């Protein structure tokens, strides 16, 4: 484990001899900078999505053209996340996080101008910044704990924070915008991201002091740890048991879930006549179930002797998510559609927590590389799911969408089984 992560909060570390995992509140006291930065990383695009219409008017462009700029962020995240994946494990993660936050601060400032070209730059930079920020924060949080179970739980606390932020961010950015508008929101997030970037720079410098933590980043017991080269990192990661199947599970699961969310509002409107106002409650139900599923699954897997292995839980959750997704699109009852919608969210959240936990446990010193590739794959999954869901809708209506997204989930199940077959005997 990289020694950069060993700080003064030693009391929060897991007891290696017993495998005990600290409680969530105790871990949060150690991880709060990572959790806060993780939440901030989701806000720029939340502002963009929430105020898409006024942003389009301010830039003298159409809503469709402005909405398409959002896709630039996903492409940037895919490209940057893949290209820089090995570097996450080769630099101090505090500094990688600081760099991602600095890019977010710059992007928010550019977006606040309201100019079309600068808004395009905003979308590109937000995608690039979060492609570095999110895996750096998740890996750094995991590295704060010596025991694999605690490390996995730390990583899932970061992802749970992100899902909670996604649920709450829209109303939180809408309220201050009443006072200063969407541009004020962007200026505020630019300031917050800049302050957090400075905080992580200071943390990185403090950790680099020779006597600060007993050892420097990349060193153990006074000897410098050998690090693989850029291309060798990809090769070594691919050779680890089950890692590649896990990355495919994450990508395909994201494609199925995001494709489902892309057409959920239209489905509820056509099938049940729900206007945007009442549908907001459905969206809240879905988001809440996702947050709770992520939180509970992460804690379940962090037990010293979990009652169910991560691989088995991942497979069961995919089966539940598949059945619920197909059920949503075929049901004619609103009272049945609502609990099925909650099950889809909880099932996918559980799979996400399983993948994160298993990658952290299996990848060791390469966990930063793995988490970066995982984030890049999920960025690609967003576009794959929306595209295939749309093809299914065009060809066969909502049953066609169910077939397309259900097919993605079935392929994810096949990769989940491959990951389970490669599980180390002592894992889970």
Automatic annotation (TrEMBL):
Pfam families referenced in this protein's UniProt entry, alphabetically: MFS_1
Transmembrane regions listed in the UniProt entry: 34-57, 69-88, 95-112, 118-142, 154-180, 186-202, 230-260, 280-301, 313-330, 336-359, 371-395, 401-420
InterPro entries for this protein: MFS (IPR011701), MFS_dom (IPR020846), MFS_Efflux_Transporters (IPR050189), MFS_trans_sf (IPR036259)
SUPFAM superfamilies, per database record: MFS general substrate transporter (SSF103473)
Species annotation: Streptomyces lavendulocolor
Origin: domain of life: Bacteria
Topological relation to the membrane, as annotated: Multi-pass membrane protein
Membrane recorded as keyword: yes
Keywords on record: Cell membrane, Membrane, Transmembrane, Transmembrane helix
Keyword Transcription in record: no
Entries under PANTHER family matching the protein: CHLORAMPHENICOL EFFLUX PUMP RV0191, PURINE EFFLUX PUMP PBUE
Sequence ranges assigned to domain Major facilitator superfamily (MFS) profile in this UniProt record: 25-424
Name recorded for this polypeptide: MFS transporter
Subcellular location: Cell membrane
């Amino acid at each position: 484990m990289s020694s950069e992560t060993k700080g003064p909060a030693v009391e929060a570390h897991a007891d290696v001899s017993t495998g005990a995992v600290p409680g969530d509140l105790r871990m949060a006291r150690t991880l709060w900078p990572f959790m806060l930065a993780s939440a901030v990383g989701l806000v720029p695009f939340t502002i963009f999505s929430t105020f898409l219409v006024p942003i389009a008017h301010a830039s003298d462009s159409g809503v469709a053209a402005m909405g398409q700029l959002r896709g630039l962020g996903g492409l940037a995240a895919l490209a940057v996340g893949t290209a820089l994946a090995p570097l996450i494990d080769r630099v101090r993660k505090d500094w990688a996080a600081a760099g991602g936050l600095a890019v977010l601060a710059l992007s928010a400032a550019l977006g606040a101008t309201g100019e079309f070209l600068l808004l395009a730059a905003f979308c590109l930079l937000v995608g690039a910044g979060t492609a570095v920020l999110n895996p750096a924060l998740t890996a750094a949080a995991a590295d704060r704990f010596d025991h694999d179970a605690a490390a996995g739980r730390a990583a899932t606390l970061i992802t749970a924070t992100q899902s909670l932020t996604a649920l709450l961010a829209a109303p939180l950015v809408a309220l201050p915008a009443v006072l200063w508008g969407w541009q004020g929101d962007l200026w505020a997030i630019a300031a917050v991201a800049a302050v957090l970037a400075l905080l992580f720079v200071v943390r990185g410098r403090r950790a680099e002091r020779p006597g600060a933590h007993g050892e420097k980043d990349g060193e153990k017991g006074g000897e410098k740890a050998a690090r693989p080269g850029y291309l060798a990192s990809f090769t070594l990661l691919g050779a680890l048991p089950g890692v590649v199947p896990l990355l495919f599970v994450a990508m395909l699961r994201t494609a199925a879930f995001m494709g489902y969310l892309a057409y959920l509002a239209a489905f509820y409107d056509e099938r049940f006549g729900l206007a945007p106002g009442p549908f907001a409650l459905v969206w809240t139900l879905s988001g809440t179930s996702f947050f709770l599923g992520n939180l509970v699954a992460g804690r379940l897997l962090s037990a010293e002797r979990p009652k169910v292995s991560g691989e088995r839980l991942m497979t069961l959750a995919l089966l539940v998510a598949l059945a619920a997704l197909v059920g949503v699109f075929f049901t004619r009852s609103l009272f049945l559609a609502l609990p099925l919608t909650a099950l889809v969210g909880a099932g996918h959240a559980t799979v996400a927590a399983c993948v994160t936990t298993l990658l952290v446990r299996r990848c060791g010193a390469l966990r930063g590389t793995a988490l970066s590739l995982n984030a890049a794959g999920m960025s690609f999954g967003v576009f794959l799911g929306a595209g295939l869901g749309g093809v299914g809708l065009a060809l066969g209506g909502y049953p066609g969408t169910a077939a397309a997204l259900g097919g993605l989930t079935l392929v994810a199940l096949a990769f989940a089984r491959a990951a389970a077959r490669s599980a180390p005997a002592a894992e889970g």
